[in-house]
Amino acid sequence: MAEKSRHRRSGMIAWLGSLVLAFAFAINWWLTRTENAELAIPRNDPDYYLRNARVNQYDDTGRLQHQLDAHRFTHYPVTDTTTLQTPTLSLSNTSETSPWKIVADNGRILRSTGYRDEIVEFWGQVVATREDKDGNFTYIMTESLTVHPDRKYAETDTKVMVKNQTGETSAAGIEAFFDRDRFIFHSSIEMPVTTIFRPLPLD
Questions:
Q1: What CA–CA distance (Å, rounded) separates 46 from 49?
Q2: If exposure means fewest CB atoms within 10 Å of the residue's CB, which of 36, 62, 147, 197 is most exposed?
Q3: Is the dihedral of CA 46, 51, 52, 55 positive or negative?
Q4: Residue 62 region, left (φ>0) first, then alpha (ψ -120 to 50), else beta?
Q5: How far are the Cα atoms of 28, 31, 34, 45, 176 from residue 25, in angstroms, in the given order?
Q6: What is the number of H-type helices and E-type strands within the chain?
């Protein structure tokens, strides 16, 4: 009886040992697979950056189309996006005498694809301005603005204020066609379109 009991205990110990060994192999396999999976995911580290740089874009005729300045350009290869610190975008050929200029705290460039043209997004304190030598001006102020430089078009669905020499308009959003000086204002229940006219001085 004692001999059978010893054999039974030995068999139980061997079985438990095999179970522990199998469990250890399983844990090791799972950890190795997890590490390999993490290594397989590409990291979106920047591959280059520029400081105090300027990028010029020309059309097919060699005419300057727009100009982008920033204190820092940082490119991320996985997403092919470029972040911008304190960017300034000049849409040079919207008008020979009074181009539009857009400044902001931050921004990023989304490269053109087969489905869209190049986009420059701005956020923070965003101000788009146009002034001419006769004293006429237009200011557009908002917290974010999406610009399509090739189309000379911009839009936002955040609160916007537009000022010129004749008054000011506030709205919930805007579509701006810079090459035609045409604006479409959007309203919401909380933010209707409101315009205040400023009387022009008498000559």
A1: 7
A2: 62
A3: negative
A4: left
A5: 5, 10, 14, 34, 63
A6: 1, 14
Helix (H, G, I), strand (E, B) or coil at 97: coil
Tokens for 187? 């309203």
User: d(Cα 166, Cα 160) in Å, to the nearest integer?
Assistant: 17
**If DSSP codes are grouped into helix, strand and coil, which group holds residue 32?**
helix
DSSP H helices, 41-157, are none
pLDDT (tens digit, 9 = 90+) per residue, 134-160?
888 999 999 999 999 989 999 999 999
| Residue-wise DSSP of 176-193 | EETTTTEEEEE--SSS--
Please give the single-letter amino acid code of residue 147. V
pLDDT average, residue stretch 159-163: 96
Q: What are phi and psi of 149, to 5 degrees?
A: -60, -40
Q: How far apart are CA 163 and CA 59, in angstroms?
A: 31
pTM for the predicted model, two decimal places: 0.75
The type of residue at 72 is: R
* Radius of gyration of the chain from its Cα atoms, rounded to whole angstroms: 31
Tokens linked to 64? 């300057």
At residue 7, the 3 state secondary structure works out as helix
**pLDDT at residue 65 in the model:** 85
